[in-house]
Specification:
The chain is mainly beta. About 10% of the residues lie in helices and about 45% in strands. It has a single domain, classed as Neuraminidase (6 Propeller), CATH 2.120.10.
Length: about 300
């Protein structure tokens, strides 16, 4: 009996220690993390780091090309692109890199995953018909939203969930558009009044601005009305906002930089190899209640049993 008691006590101690470690690293209240793509281990992998560039860690460790990480609104899951099944498609994993799973049962070329604000859906580009689609996170309910014509994509969901901004093309170049998800009406935010190539639109957390990459020029912002076009950072690409909206992370010279909007100072966060495609989120605490939409601790698994 004494041996059984000691065994049970040891098991419970190990479980609580694991919970403490995972909670501390990935889900302390107010903890912010940046997910990004890096080639430092020989191929494209998904990494995370702190906003100051410390504790850079490989999450995927796979021979395939893993890229384009997108945090869920809770910061507990990451959607990303991978060709590990032979074609680039959308996958999900937990914030610690575990529980990797494919979103869709059928194979198709899907990329640029973007979460809805409530975390229940994903917007993405399907390359077979160059259109923006929206699907439930389980991949079961799929709806075509708007065409991009060709070479378009990069959907970005507005913070209030009412619109998706995306890049489209016409015979002369690229346009920035927004589609109303209730009416399906598409409006042009940035017309193709001059030859240009634009990518990677990103809404500010308050929904007032949209940052985007203008190829060979830099990062620009525009108001959601389509007015107030402004150059923010020269020769930079792939913007992503901080959760508070007072900083941006962007790519330049194959590295990632953090840009303070108040003092306009930049800090380099990565060094060596190629680093790009960042997304910034606040990681919420782990839930002890077993819910399919959240990370759960081993205590939650015990409660289920």
């Amino acid at each position: 009996m004494k041996r059984l008691f000691c065994f049970v006590l040891c098991v419970l101690t190990l479980i609580m220690l694991e919970i403490t470690l995972v909670y501390t690293v990935f889900a302390s209240p107010g903890t912010e993390k940046i997910a990004f793509t890096s080639t430092r281990d020989g191929n494209s992998e998904i990494y995370i780091m702190n906003p100051d560039g410390s504790q850079q860690q490989n999450l995927t460790w796979h021979s395939a090309r893993d890229l384009a990480p997108a945090w869920s609104p809770t910061g507990q899951h990451i959607a990303f692109n991978s060709d590990r099944d032979g074609i680039r498609d959308i996958y999900l994993m937990d914030a610690d890199g575990k529980n990797v799973r494919k979103v869709f049962r059928s194979s198709a070329y899907r990329e640029y995953p973007a979460w809805s604000p409530d975390g229940k859906k994903l917007a993405y580009l399907r390359a077979e018909d160059w259109s923006i689609y929206v699907a439930t996170v389980d991949g079961e309910q799929v709806e075509r939203i708007a065409p991009t014509n060709s070479r378009g994509g990069w959907p970005a969901w507005s913070p209030d969930g009412s619109e998706i901004v995306f890049v489209s093309t016409d015979v002369t170049g690229y346009l920035l558009k927004a589609v109303n998800l209730q009416t399906r009406k598409v409006r042009v935010l940035l017309p193709n009044d001059e030859p240009k190539t634009i990518w990677d639109p990103a809404w500010s957390p308050d929904g007032a601005l949209i940052a985007f990459h203008w190829y060979k020029k830099g990062i620009y912002t525009i108001r959601k009305s389509g007015r107030g076009l402004k150059l923010l950072v020269r020769n930079a690409s792939r913007p992503a906002w901080s959760p508070s909206g007072d900083e941006l992370i962007y790519g330049k010279d194959k590295q990632l930089f953090k840009f303070d909007l108040s003092n306009r100072r930049a800090k380099q966060l990565t060094h060596g190899a190629i680093n790009f495609g960042a997304d910034w989120s606040e990681v919420k605490p782990l839930s002890v209640e077993p819910q399919a939409s959240q990370l759960t601790t081993k205590w939650a698994i015990i409660k289920q049993r």
